[in-house]
Amino acid sequence: MAADATSPGAATVIRDDPYEIVAFLRAKPASALPGIGPKAAKTLARYGIISVGDIADTQLPALQRILGATAARLAHDRAHGIDERPVAPVAAPKSLGAGHRFDRDELDPQQHHRTMLRLVQELGARLRTGSKIAQALTLTVSYADRTQTTRSRTLTEPTAHTRALAVTARDLLTGLGLQRARVRTLALRAERLRPAADTVHQLTLDTRDNKLRRLETALDKAATRYGPGVTGAASTFPRAE
What is the pTM of this model? Predict the structure, then answer.
């Protein structure tokens, strides 16, 4: 139920506290309770039982007369936060996304690039925090007329390094030629994720890149301590020539 009440990309945390669990459950409609389908919810409503709290407050014998013995027992227990079903682990996500909707249709290419930088930095930090690397990036641009353009590109090597992600993101954005486009939203998705332990970084003589990786680590630690968005490295996003 907590997952159903959570928007994509967010998390709902309910502490293992009976009072907090009950408070979360009581206001939900009866149909939100596992095992209470539309037909059962309609039957309960005829008796004035319309919320999970109403189910919890109804005596079990009365509930059994309405739903039957087994269904009533399950509904009664679940309305009180008791559910013996095992929790199945959720498979790790195969992609991560970040997006931005402009306050007005944006014509300025520099604003497009600055926004893309923020999305790249957000994705890079989330990948590193989750110990993941991406093998590809997908860019989706939505326009004022509600049409969309989507482009994908495989990364030179799987990575969570912001500068490496930014190179591909810049190429995707520049390749669309948005000089006169009225852009409404930009969305960037890191695709085909793998464990960071699979990273094989090609060594180079680029000392600047090595410095950026050290800076990236420091920024991640700062974000962990002070919260995301506290700082950023504009130099990680290569400028278009």
Answer: 0.53
